[in-house]
Amino acid sequence: MQYIIVGNGIAGTSAARAIREIDSGGPITMISGETAYPFSRTALMYLAMGQMRLEDTEFLERRSYRQNRIHLLHDRAERLDTVNRRVVLSGGDELQYDRLLLATGSLPARLGSKGTELDGVVHFVSYLDMERLMRLVERARRRSRRAVVVGGGLIGIEVAEVLVHHGLTVDYLIREDSYWSPVLSAAEGHYVESHMATFGVRVHLQRELAEIVGSGGCVREIVTNHQERIPCDLVAIAVGVIPNTALAKASGIPTGRGILADWQLSTRAPDVYAAGDCVEIVTPGAPRNFIRAIWYSARDMGRVAGRNMAGRADTFDPGQWYNSAKFFHLEYTAAGKTSVDGEEDGEYLHQDGRHSIRIVHRDGRLLGFSMIGSRWDHSVLLRFIRERRDLDYFFAHAGEARFDSEMQGRLSLGREKAL
Amino acid sequence: MIETVRRFIRLAVIPAYLFAYFAGLLTQGRWGLVLHFALLFVGMWSFVRRWLPIGAYTLAAIFMLFYFLLYWTDIFSVLASGLGLANKWMLYGVIYTLLVLGFGVQFIIRNRHSRYHVWRTVSLMSVQLFLAFTLPVLMPVLDQPAYYFSYLWPLKIDYFYPSVILKYPLPFVFYSFLGSLILAPALALILGKRFYCSWVCGCGGLAETFGDRWRHLSDKSTEAWKFEKVAIHTVLVIAVLGTAIVILSWTLHDDLSRHAPWLSGAAVRFEKIYGFVVGSVLAGVVGVGVYPTLGPRVWCRYFCPMAALLGLIQKAGRFRIRVKPDMCISCGNCSTYCEMGIDVRAYAQRNESFTRASCVGCGMCSHVCPRGVLRLENRSR
User: Fold this and answer.
1) pLDDT given at position B143
2) Which DSSP state fits A282?
3) How far apart are CA A248 and CA B310, in angstroms?
4) Which of A8, A87, B4, B235 has its CA 20 to 30 A from that of B325?
5) Cα–Cα distance between B191 and B202 in angstroms, integer?
6) How many Cβ atoms from other residues are within 10 Å of residue A172's Cβ?
């Protein structure tokens, strides 16, 4: 059995590992135009801050690919011939496959504003973006040292941290009323904003990018939708990601917003699978399709797709929701349902100088946790939810779930005893 | 903030030097000499760092040269007497302690958000200042022989040599044996070897403070791990056997001279060779010399017999690094900043809580993890 994996992100890499666990013989080829060895995209900001070198962010020791007979091909796949089961590479070479995985990830969403083609505008999704950002930072350091970040999400705050780290002054445009409002409550968003402010980031809420003004082809200033003008040397745009379906589209594989697949991660083309950010999972009869551009989902999807490519018939189960992030120095853990919908959902909120906790519940029963600035074992929190525990149980047993380092001291929960 | 301080030093050091020169401060006896060297050193260092970047290997060569001059020449004796210090070891102690204190303060500022790091570094700095420097200097003044309470056998191997330890009053003899054979192993069982390697030990003290900037250079390869296991346990076996020979030859001295004179010869030779190879070359010249190329824990990781012994105990003890399941994003910060070259990420990816013999429990992997996946803890059982 010949396996080909297009994309060497976490979905592709975990698929390769899953295949090897079942099929120890069949040759596996991973194709990526981005880097020669798979690296962790979540470490992009640490590369940009000079905290690690590229080798440090690679998932596995380089020689382990040879040991596991996983062939890495640093090239671009241009097109699939799904009838004759061939991949056409950028140079015109063709590779034969029996099972193929599309793990092409996502592309940065683009803004329609005027001036986004100017030199000095950058996204922050791929390794190339990171290198471009580094060059622009170097240039900005020789100029006015001012940068603008657009987009109140996770990538936006990471770029802001990178820019602050390199000594730039950052103006941060957020379209919504508070930071990351689709996920965080307004109180949490403001909590993060004030944390950012202590690092010198100037947060502008309810501001969109209207236009980027350049001179000589380079960015000079931006204009917001309120007609404010902010001079700057670089503009980082981080307004979300969209599934990368280019290869599927070029090969006639059905796509919607993402590459259409079922819960076993098979696409509509025979023996072609898809996993990670690029997938749109269709449930027959359901009103909405499933797209999730989360690192953890990509890892789990890759595992399922890999097992199915090797002959199993596993179904991808998104499981209980959890996620994590870091906002400058504040660590964030989410577990379960963190949105408050309708009248029946209640919310418990405690914030102090050190941390913020928010618990969503219904009639006292725990539904979800959103924890900022302290460490929690999400698996224990999820167990509390599964066991249908109530708020009082959480306050009595929070110690089991707390994951802060030793000696971090007491942590106030706002009610009952402190931890 | 630190960058501002650096810039200030660069700007201020030449005027300060000129002022001191023309005010005649540089010729005021011992303190003039100290001022002279301090200004010269700080000034040269800040300029060299800015405009003449020294490669890692050059720096390593400078460190090794320092130890070579210290151990086998009289240069530092001359320097010491010029500064009014008793001998070159006193001068070495001053330099060592200043490095631990100075870079310790920097480490604390940089890691002020982690209380574990703050307390650990405060402990290392106080032990170096009081137990490893002030006390041994003061004891001779009070007509006591100098004793280093923070060093234990088998690291300080001569504290088990009868000819050495029996020169001390009885409480010191008890402390030496109790500390090495009961106290340290018991604490390593409960807390892991970190209680010693990252909270007390002077070698660890220098590595964690002065050596911190090079911690990411440790070798993470599987080969390095294999070499580490062979090397460090070989040193441990040699240290234990050697100590046994020395003790035996001392106890049986009279019988030996008649029946097996070779044994006392072997004991003398062991003391000499071990002191040279392990004490001077591996701990000093190599151990500190390769800081800029292989990281600050080369001595601790590959050669220290104390670390080997406590590591074996740690494996049987309660200390572990707990991994929070399914939360690792494989970013690699933990493995990069592990000064012992442990591939922490591999365990985190597999959701596997673990105890490694070499882990000195510095807590850096847990500290740099952006998702809070790792936690140092003593299992309660």
Assistant:
1) 87
2) -
3) 57
4) A8
5) 19
6) 26
Rg of chain A (C-alpha set):
23
Predicted-complex ipTM score? 0.93
- Closest chain A residue to the Cα of B324, Cα to Cα: A377
Write out the H or E segment, with its range, that includes residue A47.
helix A44-48
**Banded pLDDT at B1 (limits 50, 70, 90):** low
Residue B16: pLDDT over 90: no
AA letter at B5? V
> Rounded CA gap, A337 and A384, in Å?
13
The pair phi, psi for residue B326, each rounded to 5°, is: 60, 15
Q: Is the peptide bond before B154 cis (omega within 30 degrees of 0)?
A: yes
Residue B117: pLDDT over 80: yes
A residues 296-335 closer than 8 Å to B (CB):
296, 322, 324, 326, 329, 331, 333
Residue to mutate among B190, B331, B367, with most A CBs inside 10 A, is B331
The gap from C-alpha B322 to its chain's centroid, in whole angstroms, comes to: 26
Tell me which DSSP letter residue B55 carries: P
The string of DSSP codes covering A49-92 is: TTSS-GGGGBSS-THHHHHTTEEEEES-EEEEETTTTEEEETTS
* Amino acid at site B262: W
Q: Where are the beta strands (DSSP E) in A178-239?
A: 202-204, 209-215, 218-224, 229-231, 234-237
Mean pLDDT for all residues in chain B: 91
Q: pLDDT tens, A114-167? A: 999 999 999 999 999 999 999 999 999 999 999 999 999 999 999 999 999 999
Q: Are B342 and B335 in contact (CB under 8 A)?
A: yes
With beta carbons less than 8 A apart as the criterion, state whether B343 and B220 touch: yes
What one-character-per-residue DSSP string does B90-132 give?
HHHHHHHHHHHHHHHHHHHHHTTT-HHHHHHHHHHHHIIIIII
At residue B113, φ and ψ (nearest 5 deg) are -80, -10
CB atoms within 10 A of CB B380: 5
What token pair was written down for B232?
A: 């460090």
CA distance A289 to A68: 35
The two structure tokens encoding residue A354: 């050190």
Measured between CB atoms, does A407 come within 8 Å of chain B? yes
Out of A46, A61, A329, the one facing B333 most closely (by C-beta) is A46
Q: Are A169 and A146 in contact (CB under 8 A)?
A: yes
Length of chain B: 381
Q: List % helix, strand, coil for chain B (3-state, nearest 5).
A: 70, 5, 25
Report the distance separating Cα A102 and Cα A279, nearest Å: 9
Which of A252, A240, A305 is closest to A276 using CA atoms? A305
